[in-house]
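Final report, Chapter 2: Outcomes

The project's central promise was a pipeline that accepts a single protein chain and returns its three-dimensional structure in a standardized token representation, suitable for archiving and comparison. That pipeline is now operational. To close this chapter, we reproduce one record exactly as it appears in the project archive, with the input sequence first and the structure output second.
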Amino acid sequence: MRKVRVRNKEFTVKLPGPATLPFLQLYRKLAAEEPESLEEARKRAEQLPEVVDEILKSCVEGPLDQLEPGDKLILLAAIGDLLASAVRPEKLQFFRKERGG
């Protein structure tokens, strides 16, 4: 867990559980791939806020209802930092050795 302050409000950010992984995968797909047209960009722009809200609901404790889009990105980045530190390559290597892989 990690404490994050956004506009004088404190939030507790925690690692996502397995049920959140599909939302993280969808976010990555929507945000990482370049849209091929303006229409596709608009469609993604409609989907992204809802996907981000689902991720935040499951990973953040605090007053989410009055956050602005930029505030949400700060919290989303904190979730990403937690994930990155939790699945560092050296930890994955240890897990693979324990499994016999």
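Archive annotation: Strands lie at 2-6, 9-13, 60-61.
This record, like all others produced under the grant, will remain available to the consortium after the project formally closes.
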